[in-house]
Amino acid sequence: MILVNTDYITGKEIEMLGLVQGATIQSKHIGKDIGASLKGIVGGELSGYTQMMIEARNIATERMIEMGEKLGAEAIVNVRFTTSAVTPGAAEVMVYGTAVKFK
Length: 103
Known about the structure:
Protein name: UPF0145 protein CLNEO_12360
Distance between the termini: 16 Å
Organism: Anaerotignum neopropionicum
Radius of gyration: 17 Å
Family: Belongs to the UPF0145 family.
Largest sheet: 4 strands, mixed
Order of helices and strands: EEHHEE
Helix content: 25-40%
Structural class: alpha+beta
CATH architecture: 2-Layer Sandwich
Number of domains: 1
Shape: elongated
Pfam families: YbjQ_1 (PF01906)
InterPro entries: UPF0145_dom_sf (IPR035439), UPF0145_YbjQ-like (IPR002765)
CATH class: Alpha Beta
Number of strands: 4
């Protein structure tokens, strides 16, 4: 599956199939949350949260790709990510785009 954040794929004529998306809500356990609070005092990367967000983006992207495959897509264009805090220590990641096939 080709994923791009543009509305075209160079050298390809595309036919739109529809909007596809994937989402997940991730959280870290209380130990990581306490560690992050302490790190907030002294500064630095919150590596536990960085890893959590990487995992969340990967899960959401896989879900979007699955939805595109069900439509017969060969690619997804205009791919965009959005995040939002759901509760302290938990975040939603959503990815969406337009499923297309080649003419």
